[in-house]
Each structure stands twice: as structure tokens, then as C-alpha cells.
């Protein structure tokens, strides 16, 4: 009887530990600022809070489209984000980026209320024709609109 109790206790403890580990991993994977850092080497402040997130059902390897709306929490220090420090180029002609941006927004069926608004700057980083990230900055709303294509 004691042997069965020990076995049950070990199994139960193992299940609890596995659940805790899965939660910690899931929490990091769903944190968009950490995902952007891992995939693109762009470090965003922990002050950003995800307001909206959509994906096309990312595969096991993380391929696909992702769209995030990040709002800065408590910008008392008037935090400025310098994306050129991370190898991103500033888009001079918005029309040149519109095709790729709209392609992702349409593919993910993003509602109008969540689409980029009051965008003052657009930055892009490309690895090749299908791997890119656009970060659109709305200084007026302290919001980042992030579009990723990762294959």
C-alpha cells in the first residue's frame, strides 16, 4: 500500500512539474516582445503591452504571418524607440511598403479598428523576399503595429 502511494505521489509530482514547465514556456512564446527579440534581434521595452494579436496558425517551426498591436504602458519618461539601432531601415515612401503590409493584413483578416492608425514612421527589416518585419510607430497613440512574415 505504501509503495502504491509513493508511486502515485511521484507520478502526480511529475505531472505538476511538467505543467509548470509548459506554462513557463508558453508564457515566453506568447510574449510578443520576446518573440521579436528571438526572431529579429530587436529589443523592445517591457513597458509594451499587447493589445491585439493575430496569426495565421503558425506552424510548429513558427512560420507564417503575425500581426501585433503593442501599446506602451506608462510612458512618463517619454521613452523613445530607435529601431535603426537594430538594423531596421526607415521606409521613406509608404507606398513601397503598402503591398506587403496590406497582404498580411488581408491574409489575417484584421478588422479595420485594429489596423494601423496615425502612423508617423514605418521601419522594415528584411532577410529575403519572404522573411520581413515591419514596425509602424504611432507616436500620437504610443502604439507599435508589428507585421511579421517568417518562413
| Share in helix | 25-40%
Q: What is the chain-wise order of helices and strands?
A: HHEEEHEEE
Number of strands: 6
Q: Which band does the percent of strand residues land in?
A: 25-35%
Number of helices: 3
Mean pLDDT: 83
Q: Major β-sheet, in short? A: 6 strands, antiparallel
Which strand order does the major sheet show? 1-2-6-5-4-3
Unreliably modeled segments? none
Class inferred from helices and paired strands: alpha+beta
Distance between the termini: 54 Å
Radius of gyration: 20 Å
What is the molecular shape?
A: elongated
Describe this structure in words.
By secondary structure, the protein is an alpha+beta fold. Helix content is 34%, strand content 26%. It contains 3 helices and 6 strands. The chain has helices at residues 2-29, 32-40, 94-107; strands at residues 48-55, 64-72, 89-90, 121-126, 132-138, 143-150. The chain has a 6-stranded antiparallel sheet with strand order 1-2-6-5-4-3, with helices on both faces. A hairpin with a 5-residue loop joins strand 4 (121-126) and strand 5. It is elongated, with a radius of gyration of 20 Å. The N and C termini lie far apart (54 Å).
Any descriptors?
alpha+beta; 34% helix
Amino acid at each position: 500500500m505504501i509503495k502504491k502511494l509513493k508511486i502515485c505521489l511521484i507520478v502526480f509530482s511529475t505531472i505538476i512539474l511538467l505543467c509548470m514547465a509548459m506554462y513557463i514556456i508558453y508564457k515566453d512564446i506568447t510574449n510578443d516582445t520576446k518573440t521579436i527579440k528571438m526572431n529579429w534581434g530587436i529589443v523592445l521595452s517591457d513597458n509594451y503591452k499587447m493589445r491585439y494579436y493575430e496569426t495565421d496558425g503558425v506552424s510548429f517551426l513558427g512560420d507564417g504571418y503575425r500581426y501585433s498591436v503593442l501599446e506602451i504602458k506608462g510612458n512618463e519618461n517619454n521613452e523613445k524607440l530607435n529601431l535603426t539601432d537594430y538594423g531596421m531601415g526607415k521606409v521613406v515612401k509608404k507606398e513601397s511598403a503598402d503591398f506587403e503590409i496590406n497582404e498580411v493584413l488581408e491574409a489575417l483578416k484584421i478588422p479595420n479598428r485594429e489596423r494601423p492608425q496615425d502612423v508617423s514612421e514605418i521601419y522594415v527589416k528584411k532577410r529575403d523576399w519572404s522573411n520581413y518585419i515591419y514596425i509602424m510607430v504611432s507616436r500620437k497613440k504610443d502604439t507599435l503595429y508589428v507585421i511579421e512574415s517568417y518562413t
